[in-house]
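Look over both lines before class:
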Amino acid sequence: MTTTAIVTGAGTGFGLALTRALAGRGATVIACARDAARLRTAVADLPGVRPVPGDVNDPAVRAALVAAAGERIDLLVHNAGELGPSPLPPLAAYPADALRAVLETTLLAPLQLTQLALPALRAARGTVVTLSSDAAVEAYPGWGGYGAAKAALDHLSAVLAEEHPELRVYAVDPGDMRTEMHQAAFPGEDISDRLLPEASVPGLRALIDGDLPSGRYRARELAEVPA
């Protein structure tokens, strides 16, 4: 059972659903999100959850997360990400500054946070999870910026696993979810057919609790999806 975890993007969506699940099993969870008021409200009734609000692109926030976790980190979940412009633009019209922002949050911040957390992760022989997407492996019009960032994050995870065999490093595709980010990708459309983020949590829990080797997995193939 995971005892100390850091979860980024924990104020809403999948990050919050995972934080609730971990807290319900007795874990200490260091929860991070940009919106301080929203984060504190979301986790106020969750035992063992310590909110550390802020932007993971901020070095001071990353340092605060690792300091709050202490000398042992059993689980680090890189859930925070950046969709990019909404509506999603084609690559021919993709603003360079917007792509830099996507890469900063989705790729560079996870690497820099992992670098800071490595001593505590290695002490615990811990687990690193990066949130992937089918956009990392499939070509969808409009998803070039986000998909490229997630593909790079997948490769970063694979290399980290090779460099640190004492850790388990997973890139996890949670599947399409009914979240604010997914709604922003389809402005004005009805996304009520997508499953709630809670549907992807059992698969990730099975991965964390199990003994599968480092690699890329689809969460909903690892555990039965709740009705």
